[in-house]
Automatic annotation (TrEMBL):
Residues 32-255 form the NodB homology domain. Belongs to the polysaccharide deacetylase family. Is involved in generating a small heat-stable compound (Nod), an acylated oligomer of N-acetylglucosamine, that stimulates mitosis in various plant protoplasts. It comes from the Bacteria. The lineage of its organism: Bacteria, Pseudomonadati, Pseudomonadota, Alphaproteobacteria, Hyphomicrobiales. One of its GO terms (molecular function) is hydrolase activity, acting on carbon-nitrogen (but not peptide) bonds. Pfam families: Polysacc_deac_1. One of its GO terms (biological process) is carbohydrate metabolic process. InterPro entries: Glyco_hydro/deAcase_b/a-brl (IPR011330), NODB_dom (IPR002509), PgdA-like (IPR037950). This is Chitooligosaccharide deacetylase.
Amino acid sequence: MPLTSKGFPLFLTFDLDAETMWTARDPAYANRPILMSQGAYGWKVGTGRILDLLDRYGIKSTFFVPGLVIDQREALIEEILRRGHELAHHSYSHAWILSLTPEQEREEMERGWQSIKRVSGKAPRGWRSPAAEISPITMPMLVEYGFDYSSNFFDDDSPYLHTVDGRETKLVELPFRWVLDDAPFFQYSIVLPGRTMQAPSALLEAWKSEFDVLHAEDRMMMVGMHPQIIGQPSRLKVLEAFIEYALGHSGVWIGRCDEMVDDMRPGLERARAEAGR
Ligand SMILES: [Zn+2]
């Protein structure tokens, strides 16, 4: 049985990190304009190209955006919202959580939350960590802020409900894995020694194989991408080919995280109640 009423859930999500992908590693990178321009490509070129592709297929998706990028690029964020996509929380400055004090982490949460509330008029419903790390206060804070989903953990191919501090919650985890991320394939920079680029076809091969197994097993597929990476021509062609491939199967739902979570959560709660009996 598929997890949702509309079939196999395929999430195509975009982390619009822009320049924060670099300044979060080292604030001094702000003084390296050419390095920063790699991030600028995400908002100047990549996002628009992605929005046009999604429109061509009538796909609504989720963009995880740091609050700082929302504040700096408000017109672009409004365009993302105008085209029907969801805006989700991705910290404020993309600061790596393990380097923060609890007070600083809370400030990142609050400021990012306020940026989304201000631009969209609504509270964010999902959260994804910058740099794929959390601290002991992160999960309780997600519950406190009333988030509906997290997309962070690598431990499953199916969604599940989090237990936080020993308490069962309604917080849905939408897990992913590095093979479902564009950055390990393509992120290249002179400040990242050892990183090489792979052929775009490598990504297509990996994602098609992942899709085949996950679809056959009635699980889910969470793809995480970055406009500054996947928005480049050769990679976007691969994303389009992957969309075509997925839509060539029956019963595939490519949609926003919030809508798919609303659809699948009653089933997850039922399964948890039955397992607890
Ligand atoms: Zn990010």
